[in-house]
């Protein structure tokens, strides 16, 4: 396995990269640090986007369902994630066992803008985990 790139997390008082409007320390920070588990599929989606934005491959792997999780994950250091828009969600609440989150994540790579659109599937067993993209 290649060496992990150090994760450069924002300060607790900085705006959260997921653009929820909350500070990192009150939004995705507790999840990425392992102090708490995301209570909903939408919050897990936000925290996974933030993990991509800060380069935290370990968090992404830890929140991926074992049935679909890759053995390793290398993040492209040339991609700068710019924004996350949650388009819709279905189920995925604290008492649900599964959920869907449709999102658009915008990025820049080599000076070119791009967007990734997806409907992500999540399941809650011991905690919420990303399964795969629908379709």
TrEMBL record:
<dbReference type="Pfam" id="PF17775">
    <property type="entry name" value="YchJ_M-like"/>
</dbReference>
<dbReference type="InterPro" id="IPR023006">
    <property type="entry name" value="YchJ-like"/>
</dbReference>
<feature type="domain" description="YchJ-like middle NTF2-like">
    <location>
        <begin position="40"/>
        <end position="133"/>
    </location>
</feature>
<dbReference type="Pfam" id="PF02810">
    <property type="entry name" value="SEC-C"/>
</dbReference>
<protein>
    <recommendedName>
        <fullName>UPF0225 protein RH861_15585</fullName>
    </recommendedName>
</protein>
<dbReference type="InterPro" id="IPR048469">
    <property type="entry name" value="YchJ-like_M"/>
</dbReference>
<dbReference type="InterPro" id="IPR004027">
    <property type="entry name" value="SEC_C_motif"/>
</dbReference>
<comment type="similarity">
    <text>Belongs to the UPF0225 family.</text>
</comment>
<dbReference type="InterPro" id="IPR032710">
    <property type="entry name" value="NTF2-like_dom_sf"/>
</dbReference>
């Amino acid at each position: 396995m290649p060496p992990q790139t150090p994760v450069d997390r924002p300060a607790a008082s900085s705006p959260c990269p997921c653009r929820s409007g909350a500070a990192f320390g009150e939004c995705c920070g507790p999840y990425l640090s392992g102090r708490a588990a995301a209570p909903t599929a939408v919050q897990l989606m936000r925290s996974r986007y933030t993990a991509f934005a800060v380069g935290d491959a370990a968090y992404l792997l830890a929140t991926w369902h074992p049935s679909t999780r890759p053995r390793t994950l290398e993040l492209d250091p040339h991609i700068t994630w710019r924004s996350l828009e949650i388009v819709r969600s279905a189920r995925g609440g604290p008492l649900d066992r599964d959920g869907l989150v449709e999102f658009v994540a915008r990025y820049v790579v080599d000076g070119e803008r791009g967007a990734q659109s997806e409907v992500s599937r999540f399941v809650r067993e011991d905690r919420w985990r990303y399964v795969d993209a629908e379709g």
